[in-house]
Amino acid sequence: MSLPTPAPRTPMHTRRVTYQGFRRDDGLWEIEGELHDSKPHDIVIRGEGEWKAGEPIHHMHIRVTFDETMLIRDIAVAMDNFPHGTCTQAMPNMQRMVGEVLGRGWRHTIQRHLGDVQGCTHLRELLFNLATAAYQTRSGSFAASTSDKPPQHLGQCVGWDFNGPVVERVYPMFFRWQPPAKPRTPA
Q1: How many helices and strands, by DSSP H and E, does the chain display?
Q2: What pTM was estimated for this model as a whole?
Q3: Domain chopping of the chain, boundaries
Q4: At what angle do helices 106-114 and 121-137 cross, to 10 degrees?
Q5: Half-sphere exposure of 40 (CA within 13 A, CB side)
Q6: Which helix (H) or strand (E) is 114 found in, with range?
Q7: Is 12:40 a contact under the CB 8 Å cutoff?
Q8: In what order do the strands lie in the sheet with 14-23?
Q9: What is the CATH number of domain 14-141?
């Protein structure tokens, strides 16, 4: 299915984001993300510089290393292109994510450690979807799970609805699964 034909328009900006997932020889996992922003025309940012059409305004890389429990063990960051001299000040703060888990509440964790002026908008954006790439990279290892607890991706989208045909087919033991009732605390 394709998008409908657009109204007449003029290109103004291109953002390319890619992720690659790897299994390391030592058993750890890595996701590398790359973000590239450019304009189809020359631009000038007063006091900062000039960029020719197609030249990257932002070109940033991130590598997150994590273990079987999705615990972040290491982060590496590179900024090849950025518009402001102060942008690189956000790079050391990325280390605050080491020790966090790629899982529920991921965006809140990013905001807590790197939100607002503590971080870089573009590096945060790379981190947002990195968790999904991590799950996609590890998808084969989740399928082999023999736990009585459902994998974390179940119940998180229409395709993985506990009451849907995909869960019934792929994870029949969790078809129509309900979380255990939380114990009541006395008032």
Answers
A1: 4, 6
A2: 0.82
A3: 14-141, 147-187
A4: 150
A5: 5
A6: helix 106-114
A7: yes
A8: 14-23, 29-38, 58-66, 72-81
A9: 3.90.1010
CA 99 to chain centre: 16
Q: Is the pLDDT of residue 180 over 90?
A: no
Identify residue 103 by its one-letter amino acid code. G
CA–CA dist 35, 18 (Å, integer): 7
Q: Is residue 25 packed enough to be buried (19+ CB in 10 Å), middle (13-18) or exposed (0-12)?
A: exposed
pLDDT tens column, 153-169 = 788 889 989 999 999 99
pLDDT-derived band at 67 (thresholds 50, 70, 90) equals very high
Cα separation, 161 vs 109, whole angstroms: 25
77, containing H or E segment: strand 72-81
